[in-house]
Design goal:
With 492 residues, this protein is an all-alpha fold. It has 26 helices and no strands.
Length: 492
């Protein structure tokens, strides 16, 4: 039994290498920017004064700071768009190596920004980091999904969420004033993402290209078999090779599909809906609102201001632990249940939180109940929606469609993140604690869709999953017509 667990150790090691240079970068970039905010804004003011002889006004300083924060999403969108073409043209492995170089360049720009007295270099560095995150997150998950056996596919793709959580916690920890959150250290803090990029650049060349890319895209049967044997340390690969052969025959002579094909083709309509709703939900489920309101609730409970940063580490650590627990559940409970019921429970808990926030002054113990409800929502988010959404593009789409599916998922994620970042402050100012009701509506509608309309993908091959979705895509047609249309619908 122990030898069976260790059989795929090379695959586990690959997930570590991909995670450090992939989704870890997303987590650390989201969290690390908060700590040096005061120092960066002071640097902007000092630079402005040295150039123009007068300090920058507050409105301009706030605008520049907002761009520094938000430009990560725009860069990530650009990276997500290229995640459909670069992996097809150059392969998954070479794309990730190039992406590591982008992060290293961004880190060098950050290091030199103070020396050059240029806050524009911080903007450029954040944009390049965003590009690295947008491209790396998509290709990281694509790489893992195409290297994993179906019994481990859910667990392996879920490591993307684990590394995001790990990156968030690490960004919060190294950003405390006792470590790198100081006036002298902030350029080094902003450049920290160069270290995982170097690690990936040095170690990834020792791993093979994905077996599915070799077999289906390049037609390299022998190379694919060698890659599988190396990663899985298994000689009996007939089932996996047969599944890839069926997929190759189904897509014989096809070019990789474009984003337009994914958006317009009937044969992937339900897969597209199943992808978009949870990917948007990662940003629209209210988790960012929760992190924002957490500090007000902590203050109401008497937590000192200088302890707030440590409590934010606790919140990030809670998310990391629950996402890790999700890896043990995803291939047992299934994607559909974890995500559907996860959204439902999030909606119910946020309803309760909204009510309790409205009556928080009635009794001294209510703020502590609110703290407990915050941790409950984060636990539910980590156990279900956060982790499972990462597995969807690898589960739902065949090889020819998968790169463009990652473009769609990345675009939805980053646009929603940008919109939430731009509009959330106005929503909070207008609605107060009732802002949660918007997120409650989205989570409950998403739960209904996922529970009642989406097939389970647990333990199924790619072709079996596609056949389940074809019953929805072509439900008004007869079986024979359906098969013909599925075949024609994937020919262009």
């Amino acid at each position: 039994m122990e030898s069976r667990k260790l059989q795929h150790w090379r695959l586990y090691l690959l997930s570590l290498v991909l995670g450090i240079g992939g989704s870890f970068q997303y987590g650390i970039q989201v969290s690390v920017i908060a700590s040096p905010a005061v120092h960066i804004r002071s640097f902007v003011n000092h630079t402005w004064q040295s150039r123009y002889g007068a300090p920058v006004d507050d409105a301009t300083n706030q605008l520049i700071w907002s761009f520094i924060v938000a430009v990560l999403s725009l860069g990530a969108w650009a990276g997500a768009i290229h995640s459909g073409s670069l992996p097809v043209t150059y392969g998954r492995k070479k794309t990730l190596l190039f992406n590591s170089v982008v992060a290293i360049v961004a880190a060098l720009i950050m290091l030199c920004s103070r020396m050059a007295q240029s806050f524009e270099m911080i903007l450029l560095g954040r944009f390049l980091y965003g590009y690295n995150v947008g491209l790396g997150l998509s290709v990281h998950l694509m790489y893992l999904g195409e290297c994993s056996p179906k019994k481990l596919r859910g667990v392996m793709t879920l490591t993307g969420s684990i590394f995001i959580g790990f990156g968030k916690v690490m960004g919060q920890i190294i950003g405390i004033k006792e470590l790198m959150g100081t006036e002298e250290m902030w350029p080094y803090l902003l450049a920290i993402s160069g270290i995982p990029a170097i690690l990936q650049l040095v170690t990834l060349p020792f791993f093979p290209e994905t077996p599915r890319y070799l077999y289906i895209d390049l037609g390299d049967t022998e190379g694919s078999k060698k890659a599988l044997q190396w990663l899985w340390q298994e000689d009996n690969l007939k089932l996996e090779l047969d599944d890839m052969q069926k997929e190759r025959e189904r897509t014989q002579g096809e070019k990789a599909k474009t984003v337009k094909d994914v958006l317009s083709s009937r044969c992937v309509r339900w897969q597209l809906l199943t992808l978009i709703i949870p990917c948007a939900g990662v940003q629209l489920c209210g988790i960012n609102a929760l992190y924002f309101y957490a500090f007000d609730i902590f203050r109401g409970s008497g937590v000192p201001e200088d302890q707030m940063h440590y409590l934010s580490i606790d919140l990030g650590a809670t998310e990391l632990v629950t996402v890790t627990l999700c890896s043990f559940l995803i291939d047992r409970a299934g994607r559909k249940k974890l995500m559907g019921y996860g959204y439902l429970l999030m909606g119910i808990t946020m309803c309760a939180l909204t009510v309790m926030l409205s009556i928080k002054d009635l009794n001294s113990w209510i703020p502590y109940v609110n703290i407990a409800l915050i941790f409950c929502v984060i636990c539910i988010y980590g156990l279900g929606p956060s982790g499972v959404s990462m597995a969807l593009p690898a589960d739902l789409f065949l090889q020819a469609w998968r790169p463009s599916a990652y473009v769609v998922s990345g675009t939805v994620n980053w646009i929603c993140m940008f919109l939430v970042g731009m509009l959330f402050g106005y929503i909070v100012n207008g609605l107060g604690q009732f802002c949660f009701l918007i997120f409650v509506a989205y989570t409950i509608l998403s739960a209904v869709f996922l529970i009642y309309f989406v097939p389970e993908t647990k333990g199924k091959t790619m072709t079996e999953i596609m056949e389940d979705f074809n019953k929805l895509n072509f439900k008004n047609r007869g079986a024979d017509i359906e098969r013909t249309d599925v075949y024609l619908a994937t020919k262009f």
